[in-house]
Amino acid sequence: MLRKLIIPLIAILSIQLSAFEIGEKLIFQIKYGIIKAGETTLQINTHIYTDSTECYKIESLAKTNSFFDNVYKVRDKIESIWDKKQLVTRRFTKKLQEGSYRQYRIHFYYPEQNFTIYTKFGRKTKKFKEKRIEIPAGTQDILSAFYYLRLQKFTVGDTLTINVTSDGRNYPADVIILREEVMETIFGDINCFVVEPILKGDAIFKQTGKILVWITADEHKIPVKMSSKIVFGSFKAILKDAENVPYEKK
Predict the structure, then answer these.
(1) pTM > 0.90: yes or no
(2) Using one digit for the tens of pLDDT, what is the confidence trace for 14-26?
């Protein structure tokens, strides 16, 4: 039986930020079946927000290669501005280009007042439409939620629940710790957790089915593999290079 863990978000203030280093950059090769389709990167750096708040800047960039562009062109950019002290989101920007699908959305978060201003760009009107949304305490976006997960302690059978506000909605995102297995990685064979995030918004790709993530089963919890169903089939993202991580490539 899965053991349900509802994370008390107030506890984040006492967490030691040892899971990742500033400047960590993870580069993944995207495969559609046996075809090398492109690459995606995840990176985290420091950023000073508008009111001099010290933050993390988390970026996800995904693109298909020139060959696969002819089949299904992807140019995605997702950015999270994540408060270093409080570990809550300050701003979340998402620009997706996947085939004929387009999306441009920005959330401006005000965690002290528990609301966000959600702006959505209309392709027909060429204007942003704004909406104010109340948010729960300690809310995350879909990128910061993953880095927040990396700071947690868990074991197989646990389900972690994190409050997420994305795409104009609030929802509790469950992350199920399915199992452990040894994975062949660029760092050698490493024991990994296999986790399943249950997302209700769009992540690195416009998700339409189950997504699984393999992360190292240690304090760093570095993602080494992702697999997901998307609008035109399924894909895998395999870690092919990394910078500023506590491992050496084999």
Answers:
(1) no
(2) 344 568 899 999 9
